[in-house]
Amino acid sequence: MKKVTIHDVAKQAGVSPATVSRVLNGTAKVKPDKAEQVQKVIAELGYRPNALAHSLAQGKGSGTVGVIVRHLYGEFFSLVLSAFENELRAKGLHMICSSSNGSAQEERQSLKIMTQRGVEALFLMAPCLPDAELLELIGTTPTVLMNRYIPELARSCVTIDNRLGGYLATKHLLDLGHERIACITAYLTRQFARQRLEGYLEALREKGIARDDLLIIEADDLYSESGTQATERLLKLGSFSALFATNDLMAAGALKALQAHAYSVPEDVSIIGFDDLSLCQLTTPTLSTMHYPTEEMGKCAAQHLLQQMEGKAPDTLSPFKSYLKIRESSAAPKGQTSPVKPLVES
Amino acid sequence: MKKVTIHDVAKQAGVSPATVSRVLNGTAKVKPDKAEQVQKVIAELGYRPNALAHSLAQGKGSGTVGVIVRHLYGEFFSLVLSAFENELRAKGLHMICSSSNGSAQEERQSLKIMTQRGVEALFLMAPCLPDAELLELIGTTPTVLMNRYIPELARSCVTIDNRLGGYLATKHLLDLGHERIACITAYLTRQFARQRLEGYLEALREKGIARDDLLIIEADDLYSESGTQATERLLKLGSFSALFATNDLMAAGALKALQAHAYSVPEDVSIIGFDDLSLCQLTTPTLSTMHYPTEEMGKCAAQHLLQQMEGKAPDTLSPFKSYLKIRESSAAPKGQTSPVKPLVES
DNA sequence: TTGTAGGCGTTATCAA
DNA sequence: TTGATAACGCCTACAA
Question: How far is residue A256's CA from residue B254's CA, in Å, rounded to a whole number?
Fold first, then answer.
């Protein structure tokens, strides 16, 4: 039971391979009766065209785009990916994807294989390879970068203004009247965390509030447990009436820690997160946060990629902006001053 | 600036294409100096082997496996996919994936393209195509089905015992002393929902408690909002001291609804969900649920697929079992003296 | 409208 | 060890 090829079909149908190809792709006109006969034989033999050979012969793309993400899990990546894939699929393109787990080696490997396999384009989410190597590996393949800026690819970086987000989040708390605002940040090796922290600092500076390193704490990773732990530490170190966590998971973890210590949110402490994960609507209280336009960004990436593939001059991309999503976890401080045990101030 | 092929390298290096191929794949021994020369030219010309042509010539697989999921988003799918991909990547295989959005047409389309593109295997999560068509489309490609049972593919179905899960969840509530236990189920067109409901009913039956249709409510979908809405309806219809939601999102939604009506959980109403999403640990109170072994299942699927690809007789798969994860949302009903009262033993 | 021939980039076969 | 040469399965001239 060998594979049936276009030749088998041709022979069986009493025509030439070329003719079969024509009825297959509608490349040229074929006499109806011949065409019908061919179709019939195709069905009989259960013939399936070999897409590989097809691409090879045509020299064109393989109908696939390569996607490399840090992780396949996590609401953020999933949503972006989902939006991205929906756009792609509508154009008949498929996604060949792999995760790097933050390993440059994995990334390199995947990138190599994908380009060799003839992906028509590349979508890289927060790649960790150094600029130069990345550019080399990419070669001339149309590429969109997400959450990573490389000057040479300036036109193709889909980013979000994390600094602005951090600024707006902090400003929200300031506007509510908070003055001692803590910040729990994901580990600062991650660019987004640094940027959000910067925004936080800027907002404070603008308000004339001095940076207090006792109120800034760098967590071990970016999940809820670290948020909890960081908050525990925070509670021992300083006093604060509000808390900015650089992502929602940590914010939710912080909420847990505060509740465990019998603080109520937002009465005793206000919290704001970042990302607007669906989880924000399910905690008690619901979490104020910075909305992250995941779907839009995934869609944008896809469209930009399609433009590049079609040879059009792609739009110039400007950073997306996140905006405030105020829910229950943020409110004005209870009294005039911070209600949380004022170690330093008292 | 055309593509540089193996011929270009050969010419430039003063050897034959075959030799270049040899140094490339280590297929046979090549004199060190020749080999070195070839390597040098490869670097100079920036030659990249064409994986398509490679597969074509070798007649072997393309190094890819096709994956079709209902959705790319959602913690459940992401985690399974992530675990699956990690196993695969370790073997140098890549994933070409697409989502069907529950559309048979999309599924058909993707399946066709993937097999044509020469995927070596298929991983289908809860496909919606009818058995017969699915089998036909799959052909002889090694396949693993997740959360779908097809007799012909009995050995390759990775499933979970949803019925058992529903039973255990309900039994947990019964054991706590609850008698009026409501059930919010995802729409019953989804098999998993029907099965979990069955488990619920069985537990009640076993306890001699009659089915009360006022306490069973079918939500519009399976997200938290429907859980909230369903609970709202429930509160108007019947009285209950415990609630089994057939998934965590709905459970979390139910929790919100109850809290909005000033019921406290678990004092007034106990809640148990299903899936053990990370969200369960972040709600207040934390959610009791049935643990769903997502990673294990994803990993299992990958391993089974690898076995098939290697021609080994794959292990026979038995359904995974979910187990109870008791957290804060379930407790004995108010006024109950002894929390757990096993009828038989007392 | 149809068939023939040559090529896509690589590997396998078989002499040399 | 090497190098021709024939596949691999399909497509696109070009010719008929």
Answer: 20
Check B116 against A56: CB less than 8 A apart: no
Cα distance between residue B99 and residue B101, in whole Å:
6
Residue-level pLDDT at A278: 97
Residue range B208-246, pLDDT digits in tens: 999 999 999 999 999 999 999 999 999 998 899 999 999
Domain segments of chain A as ranges: 6-57, 64-158+295-319, 162-288
Domain A64-158+295-319 in the same topology as domain A6-57: no
Residue A275: pLDDT band (50, 70, 90) is very high
Q: At what angle do helices A191-206 and A162-175 cross, to 10 degrees?
A: 40
Rounded CA-CA distance B258/B252 in Å is: 10
- The predicted-structure confidence for A60-91, as pLDDT tens digits, reads as follows 778 899 999 999 999 999 999 999 999 999 99
Smallest Cα–Cα separation from B306: which of B57, B38, B65, B7?
B65
Residue whose C-alpha is closest to residue A271's, from A249, A303, A296, A293 = A249
Token pair, residue A207, equals 């308000």
Q: Do B63 and A113 touch (CB under 8 A)?
A: yes
C-alpha–C-alpha distance, residues B231 and B253, integer Å: 8
Of A209-223, A285-299, B26-40, the one with minimum mean pLDDT is B26-40
Least confident among A31-35, A103-107, A312-316, B292-296: A312-316
Cα-Cα-Cα-Cα dihedral of A231, A232, A234, A236, to 10°?
A: 160
A238 closest CA partner among A190, A183, A284: A183
Compute φ and ψ for B55, nearest 5 degrees: -60, -45
Fold of A162-288: Rossmann fold (3.40.50)
Length of chain A, in residues? 346
Share of chain A above pLDDT 90, in %: 71
Backbone φ and ψ for B96, nearest 5 degrees, come out as -110, 115
**Footprint on protein of nucleic strand D, Cβ below 7 A:** A 3, 5-7, 17-18, 21-22, 24-25, 27, 49-50, 53-54, 56-58; B 14-19, 22, 28-31, 34, 53, 56-57, 59
Alpha helices of B280-339 — where are they, by DSSP H? 294-309
B193 has a pLDDT exceeding 70:
yes
B141 touches A: beta carbon within 8 Å: no
CB atoms B51 and A113 under 8 Å: yes
- Position A345 scores a pLDDT of 35
Q: Which bases of chain D come closer than 7 Å to a protein CB?
A: 1-5, 7-13
Q: Which residue is nearest to nucleotide C3 (CA to C1')?
A: A16
Give the position of tokens 């209870």.
A334
B287 within 8 A of B252, measured Cβ to Cβ? yes
Q: Does domain B6-57 have CATH number 1.10.260.40?
A: yes
- Inter-chain contact B118–A52, Cβ cutoff 8 Å? yes
Residue B2's pLDDT is: 66
For residue B320, the model assigns a pLDDT of 97
Provide the pLDDT for residue B336. 56
Distance from CA of A206 to the nearest CA of B (A): 34
Instruction: State the pairing for strand pair B94-99/A94-99.
Output: antiparallel
Calculate what percentage of chain A has a pLDDT beyond 70.
Answer: 96
Q: What is the CATH number of domain A64-158+295-319?
A: 3.40.50.2300
